[in-house]
Amino acid sequence: MASRSVAERWTYDEFARLPDDGNRYEVIAGELYVTPAPRSAHQEVLMRLIEIAGPFVRRHGLGRMLPGFDVLFGEGDYLEPDLVFLRRGRTDLVRSRGVEGAPDLVIEILSDSTAGRDRGIKRARYEHFGVAEYWIIDTDARQIEIHRPGERLPRIEGGILRWQPILDGPVLEIDVQELLSDLE
Description:
By secondary structure, the protein is α+β, with helices and mostly antiparallel strands. The chain is 23% helix and 34% strand. It has helices at 12-16, 40-59, 115-119, 121-128, 176-179; strands at 4-7, 24-28, 31-35, 63-67, 71-74, 77-79, 83-87, 94-95, 98-99, 105-109, 133-138, 143-147, 155-157, 160-163, 172-175.
């Protein structure tokens, strides 16, 4: 099933009333996008990331990581990235309805139905709203694209990704090939 877009301006109240039916609903620049639930490889990578990064973030008191949590940038922009990180001191952006503001890190895991949107309009919206770092995980190419505001081209990592969420803080090393191995 391919994603579809319905041109209409959406308020948060309308967005919040969408059904919980296994599909992913996002409103990006005022348009509704509906995507089917992710496949097993996508979910496996997400779980591995949570198992690697979650304990690192907690152990060092760096902030919060949240999977599949709404990010509300403003009226007409309600996105649901695969994983978000907020540094300590910014976790007050987490509210009952979602993250209300720009996370410090947003991670999307590509699927056939979302690749164009993840690399296109979502990347543009994340940059527009001030997301400091955006990772696009490409399971087919076995690499991670790292986008930062103001950088024309992403850094491509296929070996060891070094993530330092807090300046002068601890560094997490992620073996990208191991992260993306043995996927169905």
